[in-house]
Queue: 4 jobs
Job 1
Amino acid sequence: MKIILTIFVLTLPLFINAAEIKELSLTRCTEDALLYSPSLSALGAQVKSAKFSETASKSAYYPSIDFVARGTWVSEVPELQIMNITQSFGDNWGYSVGPEINYILFDYKGRSGSEKSAASALASAQDEYEFAKKGLVLNVRQAYFAVQQSLERIYLSSEQLALARRQLQDVNSAFKAGSKSNLDVSMAQKQELRAQINLTSARSALGVNLRELFRLTGTDYGLNPSYPSDWRVSEDNASTLIKADPLEQTLALFLKYYTFDFDENSSKITSIAHMADYYKYLAQSMGSSLYPTIALSGGGYAEYPNGPIKEHVLLARAGAYLTFPLFEGSKTRSLASAQSAQGESMEFQKSDTLDSLKKLFYSSKSVFEVLLKQTALTKQMIDASNTSAKLTYDAYKAGTLTFLEVDSANVSLLESKISLADIYIEQLNRLAVIDNLGRGDK
């Protein structure tokens, strides 16, 4: 009975910690961010606005029908006096009520330029939305990778702390037996304290990275970022135990992006190209005011008076008119030229952005290739450091080395393991950039 009770007491903290473990996956974080993002929603609203503007621009090709009501008053009505008879031509009061139709027959690219500019603005807004969507995915991935990095540092630091505590216990036992000095105990205690500091620092960084992830996703997933820890570490005072996607598993899923080619038709590039078209067509639309405009109009009206006759009458009226600008001080020409210059500016911006994205894409590929080589070398270093740490500690216990060499070997091993985790994270960041700017085969 005592044995069963002892086992229960020893394993109780494990059950408590297991109940607090909460999973955090990259897939869910990405989906939540896409649903939540206020900036993405704002761009979505801009797409809607551009769509309505495009629809409005097409209406210029249709006739406009209005209901017109006019009331008139004149102070003096012409009169004609013949003999002793006075005849008034009209009345002081009058009105005209009825439907009227107007249609622009010719405006020299005024309507077509307006429609094309609106369509270009819509295409630009849609491409900007798509690029922002990909950018949001990239930001979420990078924030999640930072969380994974902190979790790995916590796990590795906890292993180092456990080792430091075991070695401190060994040194204390040897000191009590008289085989080790007080300096050895002090060095072992220093090693344990440094491991605790590293662990605390990693948990603090995890809290910061979690808050950034929460900001992007709009939810905290029930996680308390005050003093979180990795699920592989048993910590009674941890606010939350987090289980993220395994780092190497995430890397295996992202390796496919390395084969991607640079996307010359990236949504960012096409968005700028469409904006250049927008200004070009807008300049055409504005410039149309320099040319004649021909329009037709007609309608049916209930009127009073009927010319010079004081009577209510139903009339039909139709006509055509032409307008031609004679002088306006170069206002229209200057406005059209300003829009053309804006279009030229967007073309240069497109070239500059293309060069910048290419540099980022190919730099990420080059860095990733170097990181692959660093991975192999770091793994060899970990094996060597692990062997060195074991041999150093054995030599220390045999009395041929001091604890300073033991501490140095342990630090070297920890740094090698953390370096490998950091390299994995950097590989993921580079692959995420390649995916963001690249294009894979269908």
Job 2
Amino acid sequence: MEKRRKPHPGWDCGWKWPCATGCRDLGYIVERIVSNRHCNTCFDGVITPSGFPAHLKPPLTLCRIEVMQVKPVCPTEPSIGCGTMGRVCLVLLCCVVDRCGCRGEGVAQIEVEDCCRPERAWEAGTNVRRGAQVEISNACFCAPCSFHVCLNICLHTVVSCCEMVGARPQPCNSCPTLPLYPPPCPHCSC
């Protein structure tokens, strides 16, 4: 005799469509780009990365820089809003090679002018994302572990907001009233 398995409890959950006239919510949320700006700037100065492995032997060669984080620089005066001074702080991952060919990584921070900041302060509910790409045009090693660099930086700022698109839920006033099946017995009190 073959034994049959019980159906999975989630297969028949008893959920039915609200009604045949399409009263369910067909809307969805999309992200709308409000502003998308790009600009180029440069940095010429000394950076001192920290966190290099102790076994690296100078002189070090800076071979690559990646941007880990872009954040606005907030002024110290509390009456001025954050990011209104037009500067951003870039957290950089600096990849180096020593004289023996050993590789290492360190983290440095620089501040640059935010030439593509939004024109106005955005209301609540908007998202501001900043990113950057860095290209090394010149880098000279300064003992013990600093570099005098000239960097070309491409900053980009995207301001977006979320919107509801599509139909809004409507009340189901037009759903038909269906009779019970089988119809109740007119002679029974139940």
Job 3
Amino acid sequence: MLNVNLNGGMQDEYFAASQSILEDGTRFRTKPYFHGTKKEPLKLQVSFAFEYDWGVNDLRYVRSWLTEPTNYVPLIFSNEPEKIYYVLYVDEPELLHNSLSQGYLTLNFRCNDAYAFSPLMLSEIYEWEDNPFHLTQHAFVEGELNGLVLDKNNHLTLQPDSFTWNKLNDEATWNEIFK
């Protein structure tokens, strides 16, 4: 079976799920109280054409496949395999044909949500070795103090002979700075 477009011209498809506004009104106020919005589940209309003439068994198989599920089932289109719609058919399915076992089916599907889903993504399994890091230094003074010293109040200060930008003269070159 093929998914077909029966409309001439531009392709028609849903843009987003329909939504309704949740609000309450009161007797003496013209402006309602806004509570939020509610998205409705997606509704898709799909038309299927048979590639070849069908027989009675073909129609019976397709009818069972499309109309007998009692729970939401995945619907995936070949041009967008990363989108999975979980659907059940609603309304009345139509079989339109020319009495020569040639024609198409039109079904309306209702999704279980306002969004499509993506396939389950699994990554490789990585071996993990638990090597916990233990910090043995419990005070700042036990660590390395590169260019820093602690004064008598245990405040950080620069060592007196440390390089600072203020000590450079205006004509200093890069070679003089990084020697």
Job 4
Amino acid sequence: MKASDFLYLGLGAAFLAKDKISEQLTEMEKRGDISKDEAKQFMEDAVARAKKERDAFDSRLRDAIKEAVSELGLATKDDIDELKSLIEKS
């Protein structure tokens, strides 16, 4: 399974979870367990936490990719730009 497959699997699970949470909040609201404002605040907090976690995941993923590129000795965009500059000067 490729990394992108895991990403899409995670996104699918997140959307499913969001739908389920939304349904549960609606049910709780109908029963009077929580107010509409409390349900709205809960969803806003959940979205903010998800964004923070996604940003942290993205950062860790970028770091892992940079490390893999470095360990493999692959040329980076900066390396290629530097070589182009040297060739143009010649």
